Amino acid sequence: MYRKYKSAELVKPGGLDLKDRLVGVQRVTKVTKGGRAFGFSAIVVVGDEAGVVGQGLGKSKDVASAIAKAIEDAKKNLVRIPIKKGTLPHEQKGKYGGARVNIIPAAAGTGVIAGGAVRTVLEAVGVHDVLSKSQGSSNPHNVVKATFDALLQLRDAKTIAKDRGISLEKVFNA
Question: Does the pTM of the predicted model rise above 0.85?
Answer without folding.
Answer: yes
